[in-house]
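Please review this one.

:::
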Amino acid sequence: MANQPTSTRPGDGLVLTDAYVGAVNRCAPPANKPTPDERDNCLPYLVAEISALPRLRVIVALGAFAWTGVLRALTARGHADRPRPVFAHAAEMVVGPFVLVGCFHPSQQNTFTGRLTPAMLDTVLWRARQLANG
């Protein structure tokens, strides 16, 4: 999905193919701890982004907070999510025309403690690519 293994600065030549990076929140809240209200205030933007991506098939949610936000956005687009699927690392759930894939958030807390390893993240991203390619 990327033409080089790392990106060190803007303009360093990194190109993503068949990938889009979005967010359930549009701002960095105090202490980097977004609230459900902040997520829900940003919901219309996420709904609009999803709607603007006609080839979107797979969504990787980085963390339970993103998982819930994506489910809310898909519900707003008319895709039922009942019973609500529970977040777990590498969990997969079909919601309407999309497959939602869960991944632990790549925060320092998760990466420094080994809760999320590079191999675990790679596995989720490879699975998402496999699902997207049908």
Observations:
- Residues 1 and 17 are 5 Å apart (CA to CA).
- Strands lie at 58-62, 92-95, 98-103.
